[in-house]
Structure formats: C-alpha cells, structure tokens
Amino acid sequence: MSVFDGFKFRSISSPIHQLDPRAKFIYVCVLFTVAVMFNNIIPLLILFLIQLPIVFMAKVQREWMRSMKGSAVFAIMIFAVNLLSLYFYAGHETFTSILERSLAMTIRFIVLVQSFSIFFLTTSPDTLGLALEQSGIPYELCFAFTTAVRFVPVLAEEAQTIIDAQKARGLEIESGNFLRRIRNYIPILIPLIVNAIRRSLELAETMESRAWGACKNRTNLYVLKIKTNDLLLILFSLLLLTVSIYVSINVYIPSLTSLLI
Amino acid sequence: MSGYKGVFEQMIIVENLYFTYPNGVEALSGVNLRIEDGEFVAIMGQNGAGKTTLVKHMNGLLKPTRGRVLVDGIDTRRVSVARLARKVGLVFQNPDHQLFSETVEEEISFALRNFGYDEKTIKERVGWALNMLNLERYRKISPFMLSGGERKRVALASVLAWDPKIIILDEPTIGQDYMQKEKLRQFILQLNQQGKTIIVVTHDVEFVAECNPRIILMKQGKIIASGKAEEVLTNEDLVKEASIALPEIAKLFKCLEEYGFPRNVIDVYEAADIIYKRLRDQK
C-alpha cells in the first residue's frame, strides 16, 4: 500500500461520507484559510485537534494514518528548513521561539494534508462530479474531471504491469548514474502514455456510441440536496472563520512555552 | 545449491508457496510444483486462480510471502529479476505493456543491450528472432504500426532473442487467428524439442489439447490437478472445477462412451484412428 491510499476514496458508510461535497469543500477552504492566517503553534494545534473527531466519525483512521506517515518526510523537511533558516537569519529570537515557530509551520503543513486527506477519503469522485455539475460548471468539464480521477488507479496498476514487463526483459530501473536512471524510465513512460491515449480514444468512441451529449440539458438520477448535517458543517465552518478573524485581529496569542513555564 | 540440478534435473521447484498481495488478497495458498528440465507444461484455470501470480514468481518479479521458489537451483529471493530473466523469459499477455521503441529491430535488441551483449551478437540474435517469427519485413517499422497479432509476435521475439532456458508464455493465443495459432504451436513444440522448458498460461483448451503438454489446473490459489493432458482434460469434474471446457474431441468421445469408445482421447489424429478402426471392423 502506498501513500496515495491515504487520499483514495473508500466506499464506506459514515455521517462524513454522506455529507454534501459542497459543504465539505467549504469546510476545507475555511480550514486552509485559517491555517494560513496563523503563525502560532496554539491555534494550529487546535485546528489539527478539531479534525480528529471527524477522522474517527468517518472511520478512516487507518487511511488517514497512512497519509500522515506519507507526509512525515515532507514535514521533517519543512521543520528542518524552517529551523535552519530562522536560526541563521533571525538572530535576535530565542531558540525556544525559533523551535516553536518551526513546529508551527510543520503543523500547518500537516493540517493542510489532513484536511485534503479527509476530503478525498470521504468524497467519491462521482458525487464530486455531481457537485461540480450542480455548481453550474459545464458537463464536459465535469466529465473530464471525474474520468481523470476515475482512471488514476487504473493507470497506477498499468504502470506496475509495465515495470514488471520491462524488468522481465532485464531492465534495472535503479541502476546507473542520475542521467542513466532518468533514461531507464523511457521504456516505462512510452507504453504508459501510448496506452493512455489509446484508451482515451476508445473511451471517446464508446461514449459517443452511447449517445454522449445527445441532449443539451442532462438530468441526473441522483440530485445533491443540502441537508441538516451539511448546514451544520457550513455553519461550523463560517463560525470557525469568524472566530479566527476576530482572534487574529484582537487577541494576543501566547506562545506555548510561555504557557507551560 | 547446484547439487539439486544434478540429482533431480528439476528446473523449477515451488515449495509450499504462499503469496499475499499488499492489498491483503491471498493469491497463492500453498502451491507445490516441480517442473523438469525440458518439460512442456500448461497452467490452466479460471480468471483470478493465481496463474499469472505463480509464473511471476518464476522470474522473481514476485517474491514468496511464505515458502520458496528455486529456479535452476537458485532461490529467487536471493537474486535480482534481471539476473533470473536471463534464464527465464516471461512474455506478458499484453504486448502493449512493453513495446516502446521506434523500430521492431530496436525493440528486440532492448533486452540484449540490457544483458550486455556485444553489437555483433545483438545483430545476429535480432536477425534470428525476426526470421523465427516471420517479422523480417517489419524490421524498420514502428511496432505501434503493427496489428495486435503482429505486436504479440514482436513481444515474443523480443524475449526469445536472448535464448532463455525457460520460456513462459502468458496467454499466447489471445488475438491470434487460426493460422498464427498453428504457427505458434509448431514454434513452441520446436523450441521444446530444442530442450527449452516451456510453460504456457492459457484458457485456450483446444490449443492445449493439440500441444499435449502436462496440465496443471489451478483454482483459488491452489493446484487442484496435475497430469497428462488426455487424463486431466477428459476428466469432466476437474475441468468443471477449473472453469474451463472439455476439448471438442473429448466432448465427442464422451458422447460415444456408451458405444464402447475410450474416454481419454483429445488428439484429432488419434480420434480419427480409433473411429476408422471401428468402422473397418464393422464391415
């Protein structure tokens, strides 16, 4: 299993899965905005923590852990870069405050990954396409989007088969110097791209033979409706945004160390 | 390790092989199999029975979760795919998963270059492989311009070119017309006569009936039968269990059983012989 499984939709039944994608999208946008608004560790930590109940409600703890593990490498990198650059260029700060600010940046990154992960783990590409469609985006674009998402796992599987087939012909992907290694990917990329183009042409033919685009105004079997839970989530998101704006303007946020000591 | 080969002449030994894919699907559960040097084996069974998973263990693309696989005395876990591939040529089901070069010639020389052959040998081998598979006139043509059946032959040529001891063919008959199938059959038998160990993974029961190899039937990650083609493929219960059909000749002789005909016949010529003798005796 790879990191991508931490972002791949899994069809299970939970209150979070049943939420309207538009409501979830608003929530993710608010979370992004708020996470970027603050530099301090405490509000970012709060943001991280308020998402945990959602993860558990959606029953995606294992997949969420995977996305967290996958982002750990980047998180460590962000931490190290922040720590080093602050250490060398912001000489008048104490080491603890540098440490805290670097940690805050890392947590911000984790919060962003986390909200992305929750959104994609609990939103099926189909309902996402439906949401786009109902937001007035042309059907062609929505269809292109859902098809692209739909074919990601197919492509990943195909890439693995191609790698196997070329390895069976003696290709050693991990051998040679840097340039050589890049060249090693040619025998994998060409079949992958050629097959993707072939498949898209086939798909276009199949869709047209099934009267794709025959009528101007399509109707859908399923129609998204904003329900009570969706309203609650939107309300919560707006509240979070308002409070955050108020706090960031009017309230002094203490550092974590000053609270602890 | 080398003692194995001397004593048993076993080319491939699969011992108590279990394999679970990373997504948790157990594809093989306790496979035991021995394939001798120069043997011709067909692995058959329904979709998802684990046939392709099994052959992918034979060139080290997959490593056992439990148990072990020895190829020519070498444990597949100890060596790289590239090293095993020199001995084991695996031709994949879909040629589109491997063709990438600008010309058929370059496509065939790809593996030879990977294995570090010199230019002179590469030229010889490519010429030989093109000739063998009747692809000479496509030498300078892009493999993407060819038909499905021709692409399949290019893929086969690109593996045969390095002359592996063991040749594994995954669904070689798909997309081939009758004439090409017949040529392929002759070709496989010829390779087998030259002493190559041949393993064919297929659903094509008629193709197998005409080749007459040892049959291995698989179902749900296990081997359910192994034996001579005329015994396994005429056993209705086994064949049903593996979700394949009886060969046409076997169906015919099943109908003729009540008139005292033998059951275990799958070969057309043998069948003709038996029927002819019966007709002659009745005169």
Structure description:
The complex is a heterodimer of chains A (about 260) and B (about 280). Chain A is mostly helical. Chain A has 2 domains: about 5-125 and about 225-260, no CATH class; about 140-210, no CATH class. Chain A has 10 helices and no strands. Chain A has helices at about 20-35, 40-55, 60-90, 95-120, 125-135, 140-165, 180-185, 185-210, 230-250, 255-260. The longest helix of chain A has 29 residues, at about 60-90. Chain A starts with 20 loop residues before the first helix and ends with a helix. Chain B has a domain at about 245-283. Chain B has helices at about 1-10, 50-60, 80-85, 105-115, 120-130, 150-160, 180-195, 205-210, 230, 235-240, 250-255, 270-280; strands at about 10-20, 25-35, 40-45, 65-70, 75, 90, 165-170, 195-200, 215-220, 220-230. In chain B, a hairpin with a 5-residue loop joins strand 1 (about 10-20) and strand 2. The longest helix of chain B is centred in the middle third of the chain and has 16 residues, at about 180-195. Residues about 1-5 of chain B have low confidence and may be disordered. Classes of the chains: A mainly alpha (about 260), B alpha/beta (about 280).
Strand arrangement, major sheet of chain B: 6-7-8-3-9-10
Into which percentage range does the β-strand content of chain A fall? under 5%
Structural class of chain A: mainly alpha
Overall number of strands of chain B: 10
Average predicted confidence as pLDDT of chain B: 91
The residue fraction in helices of chain B comes out at 40-55%
Shape by Cα distribution of chain B: globular
What portion of residues of chain A is helical? over 70%
Beginning-to-end CA distance, first to last residue of chain A: 43 Å
Main sheet properties of chain A: none
Report how far apart the termini of chain B are.
62 Å
Strand content of chain B: 15-25%
Order of helices and strands of chain A: HHHHHHHHHH
**Over all CA atoms, what is the radius of gyration of chain A?**
23 Å
Largest interface: A-B, 20 and 27 residues
